[in-house]
């Protein structure tokens, strides 16, 4: 890309060359262009150009050749530097020349003629340095552009901008607790922690307890440094669903990880990060203004393909249906092509039967007993939802637990073979069907003169609690065929006593031999129970005065 306003180009002979060669000193106009457009790379100790004769080399490149010519120019320039005896900063010179040339090829506007862009090296007379220059025909000044994450250019700027945004956001998160410098030997729950002295050290085990929440976030803010002890004395341990992807270390200056230590989470450092021999990092190491130095360390990036398996209930009864939902999310900035997972259902199908209803919002899902498999491609930030159900055997002769385990061979998955992420597994307990009838009214009294009709609303009440998936029935039956009274042989047929469920319109006569159905329901009761009540009515016959009675038996049973 042009570095300034249009200036006279180098002499024509420079651009028509097809290989590197030494050139005579350019004219003053061309020299002023090189001075304006070039970036100087000092090379201490390298031989200077001979008095009165600078060393120069140029390479013309066709604009429509893409980035392929860069490698050829780089190789030829390296050979030229060796001929000049420049070795100490040769790699730096080649890097600068490559970056300038790639930038011009990608962003300069094409010009007329056979050539479009030219790259050159020049070692001025008696100068301890080399000028790296690239010219292009565009008349425009360089200008900032938004970084293109998916393109060959802009990644560095975009990454730096993203790191700056992440660093500032994490540093600005309100602190929930200020804690001592030493974190070793402590257990912490989710929160935002700041150091009382501005530094953090880890000597021993730091346990981060997510308390069963896989989305729990831990942020540690050190105004200056983070230092972990050496010789395996420092370890960050994640328990109860804590995820390395949700642990952030904000370091105001530099971080140093001691030999053989284990750190989980991402370090966002203002300056440098030094990782010594044998360190293991489950996360990312990101430095804003200085270097990340590694020495035979193992770095594992947080998973980018997040799989979460969940059932709609924590427990189920024989005959009930359990619905499962698996979500697969690509959290990276790049597409995930050919993602897969397998849900091993052997621990489910010993207690239940697959309902044959698997479906996926994206990709393809299939079932081959005892496993369910999914495959598909996800765009950056995209997700897929897979659903299926099983019906618990009735009776259940299995181990009483529906246990499934998902594994994925896709790189970056949170469910690798042998993984321990709780989001990759599901467990539903199979519990027996129970039913209870409580709170039954102890007695009812209907009184009146012979020939009158007496009724009582909500005369009998009770509560039924059951987990039966198919529902339940409540019946009532008299223990005798007639109501009797002391001191008289008169009786009242039990069929004269009528009953109905409260809210219904029609009564039905009681029987001493056949139960009367007074409540029927599909599905289980509410968790606190169903309140049921009955209304009673009787047409009092002509009998001697007295208290006529019988006993009623209420029975609640589950529906098969």
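-> sequence recovered:
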């Amino acid at each position: 890309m042009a570095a300034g306003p249009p200036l006279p180009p180098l002499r024509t002979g420079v651009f028509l060359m097809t290989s590197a060669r030494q050139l005579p000193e350019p004219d003053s106009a061309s020299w002023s262009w090189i001075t304006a457009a070039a970036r100087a790379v000092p090379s201490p100790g390298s031989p200077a150009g001979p008095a009165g004769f600078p060393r120069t080399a140029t390479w013309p490149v066709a604009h429509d050749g893409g980035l392929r010519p860069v490698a050829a120019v780089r190789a030829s320039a390296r050979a030229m530097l060796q001929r000049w005896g420049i070795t100490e900063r040769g790699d730096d010179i080649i890097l600068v020349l490559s970056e300038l040339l790639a930038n011009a090829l990608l962003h300069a506007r094409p010009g007329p003629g056979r050539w479009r862009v030219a790259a050159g090296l020049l070692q001025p007379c008696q100068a301890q340095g080399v000028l790296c220059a690239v010219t292009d025909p565009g008349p425009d000044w360089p200008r900032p552009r938004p970084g293109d994450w998916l393109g060959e250019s802009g990644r560095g700027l975009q990454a730096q901008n993203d790191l700056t945004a992440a660093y500032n956001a994490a540093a600005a998160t309100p602190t929930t607790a200020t804690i001592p410098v030493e974190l070793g030997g402590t257990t912490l729950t989710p929160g935002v922690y700041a150091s009382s002295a501005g530094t953090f050290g880890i000597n021993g085990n730091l346990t981060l307890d997510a308390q069963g929440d896989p989305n729990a976030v831990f942020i540690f803010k050190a105004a200056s440094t983070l230092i972990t002890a050496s010789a395996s004395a420092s370890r960050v341990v994640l328990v109860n669903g804590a995820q390395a992807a949700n642990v952030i270390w904000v370091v105001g200056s530099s971080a140093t990880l001691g030999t053989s230590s284990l750190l989980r989470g991402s370090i966002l450092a203002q300056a440098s990060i030094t990782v010594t021999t044998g360190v293991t990092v489950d996360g990312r190491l990101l430095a804003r203004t200085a270097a990340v130095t590694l020495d035979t360390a193992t770095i594992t990036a947080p998973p980018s393909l997040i799989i979460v398996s969940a059932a709609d209930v924590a427990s189920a009864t024989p005959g009930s249906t359990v619905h499962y939902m698996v979500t697969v999310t690509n959290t990276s900035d790049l597409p995930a092509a050919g993602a897969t997972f397998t849900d091993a259902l052997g621990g489910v199908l010993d207690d239940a039967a697959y309902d044959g209803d698997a479906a996926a919002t994206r990709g393809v899902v299939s079932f081959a007993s005892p496993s369910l498999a999914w495959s598909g491609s996800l765009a950056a930030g995209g997700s897929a939802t897979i659903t299926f159900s099983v019906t618990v055997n009735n009776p259940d002769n299995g181990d009483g637990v529906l246990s499934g385990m998902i594994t994925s061979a896709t790189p970056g998955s949170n469910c690798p073979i042998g993984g321990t992420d709780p989001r990759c597994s599901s467990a539903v307990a199979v519990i027996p069907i129970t039913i209870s009838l409580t709170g039954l009214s102890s007695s009812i009294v209907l009184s009146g003169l012979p020939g009158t009709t007496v009724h009582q609303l909500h005369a009998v009440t009770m509560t039924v609690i059951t987990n039966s998936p198919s529902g339940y029935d409540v019946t009532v039956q008299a223990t005798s065929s007639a109501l009797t009274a002391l001191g008289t042989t008169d009786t009242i047929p039990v069929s004269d006593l009528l009953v109905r469920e409260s809210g219904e319109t029609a009564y039905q006569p009681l029987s001493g031999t056949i139960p009367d159905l007074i409540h029927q329901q599909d599905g289980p009761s509410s968790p606190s129970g169903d309140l049921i009540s009955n209304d009673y009515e009787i047409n009092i016959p002509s009998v001697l005065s007295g208290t006529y009675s019988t006993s009623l038996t209420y029975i609640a049973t589950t529906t098969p």
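Helices lie at 12-15, 28-37, 68-84, 90-107, 155-172, 346-349.
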